[in-house]
Amino acid sequence: MRAVITGGGTAGHINPALAVAQELRACGHEVSYAGTPQGLEARLVAQEGFPYTAFAATGFNRRKPLTLLASSARVALSTLRARRWLAAVRPQVVVGFGGYVSIPVGLAASQMRIPLAIHEQNSTSGMANRFLARHAQLVALAYGSAACGFKTKGAVETVGNPVRASLFEADKATARAAFGLPQDATVLLAFGGSLGARHLNEALVSQAGFLLSVHGLHILHVTGTRDYDETAAALAQLPSAAGRWHLVGYCDRMGEAYAAADAVLSRAGATTLAELGALGMPALLVPYPYAAADEQTANARALVDAGAAALLADDELDTPAFIERLTPFLLDGGYRASLTRAALAHGNAQARQTLARLVAELAERHGA
Fold first, then answer.
1. Is 316 helix (H, G, I), strand (E, B) or coil?
2. Using one digit for the tens of pLDDT, what is the confidence trace for 25-76?
3. In angstroms, how far is CA 244 from the centroid of its own chain?
4. Is the pTM higher than 0.85?
5. Is 317 left (phi over 0), alpha (psi -120 to 50) or beta?
6. Cβ atoms of 190 and 200 closer than 8 Å
7. Which helix (H) or strand (E) holds 157?
């Protein structure tokens, strides 16, 4: 079977797409990837060795009608290009994971009567997926609650969020050695997603005095590239941070980062939550408050309600509630263990295999 995967913009779209692409390849299928010219996906897909083709696609500002016209024209042109490309690649199925680039590729597939599947990572549906659902033969969901956001004649399946197989391959001893972390330390992994999280970074640094007073605590802090220099400069003023506060601008070794950690402080993107659940990581979640429809809070609720994580509102980062909520993660091994058990029970480590199987079955039904 030949498959085309498309999706881009943020790691929340790209990592699940790559997880399924890798699974399909492992099953002997040919996979090509369609993304944007300069998007994060261009680099990440190249690292995984999949053939990559770029199509221009951008969003628009509803308050500026001219941006809608420009965006629509770009989509129309990219759809024509995608049709020519699909005719050359001859896939039996196209799978979209959201992001604007999935629109022209998915639309071209529909026009050419190539079976189309989409996957929605969030508990609320994204614009690109809502548009393509009308043309899709399969709508796969991470959260069953997202079903109400789609108008489709295709099958609707709740499969969970695909997690990359590589995340399960790291072991703690090797991972800690890779990051320069002591084997007997308590390690807090803090990150804000692929783009970082400034407020989270600032709140952590503001509490550096307390954090560094916790005996044996080391912080593995992924700042995001835009905040790395500023965060490093602030920590340079604290001699006690040397050797205990480990800064990374962008981490492309998240499997090792998770393996090295005892607890996680993070935003609540859908991919992050899937990874935390599948790996059984105890986490304090701080949802990004400006996400569309407050989707990160909605996403996090399932994990929190299962007793697998704790929740902190973004506006509580600057209050005593931050340290009050974080302290048990640093000092109470029994608390962390209970969260780990709940996370593993709630998580879905098989989502990539399930979705890959459904995609292959879709292609087979339509004559692959």
1. helix
2. 999 999 999 999 988 899 999 999 999 999 987 665 556 655 556 677 788 8
3. 27
4. yes
5. alpha
6. yes
7. strand 155-158
- Can you list the domains of the chain with their CATH numbers? 2-163+349-365 (3.40.50.2000), 166-346 (3.40.50.2000)
Question: Kind of pairing, strands 138-141 and 283-285?
Answer: unpaired
Q: At what angle do helices 40-48 and 11-26 cross, to 10 degrees?
A: 20
Residues 6+ apart with CB under 8 A from 287: 267, 268, 294, 296, 297, 299, 300, 311, 313, 314
- Asked if 153 and 228 touch (Cβ cutoff 8 Å), the reply is no
What's the CA gap between 283 and 335, in Å, rounded? 11
Give tens-digit pLDDT for 299-329. 899 899 999 999 999 999 999 999 999 999 9
Structure tokens at 286: 């701080």
Q: If you write DSSP's letter for every residue of 245-278 in order, what string do you get?
A: EEEESS-S-HHHHHHH-SEEEE---HHHHHHHHH
CA dist., res. 308 & res. 336, Å (int): 9
